[in-house]
Automatic annotation (TrEMBL):
<protein>
    <submittedName>
        <fullName>ABC transport system substrate-binding protein</fullName>
    </submittedName>
</protein>
<dbReference type="InterPro" id="IPR028082">
    <property type="entry name" value="Peripla_BP_I"/>
</dbReference>
<dbReference type="Pfam" id="PF04392">
    <property type="entry name" value="ABC_sub_bind"/>
</dbReference>
<dbReference type="InterPro" id="IPR007487">
    <property type="entry name" value="ABC_transpt-TYRBP-like"/>
</dbReference>
<dbReference type="InterPro" id="IPR047776">
    <property type="entry name" value="ABC_SBP_TrpX-like"/>
</dbReference>
Length: 336
């Protein structure tokens, strides 16, 4: 009798083990399906504001993040990618096209692109890729509880850390010109945050807003004689015409402090930056979660705020400035 009971227990355990192995075989070791196991192909739409190295890096990261979440282009995912090239009319047309094509989810890279998608649909999930001020841009009502069909990733520029860089690298600076685009909502919030941090440190900050790339050269030429240094936020308009800013600042012997690593490489002197690729990965992983059924209304916006130091030693030498050894040791990237 005891042997029969023992055999019954062993049989029951065997059934449970086989059942468990069957489930994990279908879903993967951690219970999540891999790209090869999610056999049904889904389509998503991606709208990028403009061609620029930093935004291109975000898109590259998005693909990687989607793949990590089980959605890969070569197996079960179709990405309908569009680039508006900073044309507001194209943003509207492309947003409407991506909605009409009935994509399962939409990703907007940069604030104007996310806004275009948000205006085009209230039903299809929209995931923001690197939007600095989602609330100020009227994309979500609350970061923790977005409350609609939109959520995503925010790149909160570490402006206070950049102020410390200015103090260490160019101690004679007193007045800083903040160059930004008046057409990008996220830029104004960054300027306000930078101004607050810089004024606490004793600097005078003078804002210089441009409505488009056409006015950048004239604005920079008017600004440089009145300031000791230039600061730029994460701003797509400024980024697309940054060589113009660099050329004028170099001639005037004025340092440029930026918010993006690629802009330091192009001629800025230093920055505390966020990895655009990592921002993209986080955006892609969030998009995968939405495709798996997560509700954008209750999915908190993910905030990136811890940056790394990037310095351009070559530019500093050209301007007659010395980057302290202690700062060079802390820097994640030093451009010689």
């Amino acid at each position: 009798m005891k042997n029969k009971k023992l055999l019954s227990v062993i049989a029951a355990l065997a059934v449970l083990v086989i059942g468990y192995l069957g489930i994990t075989g279908l879903t993967g070791q951690d219970g999540e399906q891999t790209a090869s196991e999610k056999s049904e192909t889904v389509a998503i739409g991606v709208l990028q504001f403009v061609t620029h190295e930093s935004l291109d890096e975000i898109y590259r990261g998005i693909e990687a993040g989607l793949a990590e979440g089980g959605y890969a282009k070569d197996s079960n995912l179709t990405i309908n990618f569009m680039n508006a090239e900073a044309d507001q009319n194209q943003i509207q047309k492309m947003s409407e096209k991506l909605v009409a094509d009935k994509n399962a989810a939409l990703i907007g890279i940069a604030t104007p692109a996310a806004q275009g998608l948000a205006n085009a649909t209230k039903d299809i999930p929209v995931i923001m890729g690197a939007v600095t001020d989602p609330v100020g841009a009227n994309l979500v009502s609350d970061l923790k509880n977005p409350g609609g069909n939109i959520t995503g990733v925010s790149d909160a520029t570490p402006v206070a850390d950049t102020v410390e860089l200015i103090q260490e690298i160019s101690p004679d600076v007193k007045t800083i010109g903040a160059l930004y685009s008046s057409s990008e909502d996220n830029s104004l919030s960054q300027v306000e945050a930078f101004t607050e941090a810089a004024e606490k440190a004793g600097y005078t900050v003078v804002p210089y807003a441009v409505p488009s790339t056409n006015e950048i050269a004239a604005t920079v030429n008017a600004m440089l004689p009145k300031v000791d240094a230039v600061w730029t936020p994460t701003d797509n308009t400024i980024a697309s015409a940054f060589p113009t800013v660099v050329s004028a600042a170099k001639e005037a012997k004025k340092p440029i402090y930026t918010s993006v690593e690629t802009m330091v490489e192009q001629g800025g002197i230093a920055s505390v930056t966020l990895s655009q690729y990592d921002l993209g990965v986080a955006t892609g992983k969030m998009a995968a979660a939405i495709l798996d059924g997560a509700d954008p209304a209750t999915t908190p916006v993910e905030i990136f705020s811890e940056g790394t130091i990037v310095v351009n030693k070559k530019v500093a030498e050209e301007l007659g400035l010395t980057i302290p050894d202690s700062l060079l040791e802390k820097a994640a990237t030093v451009i010689d």
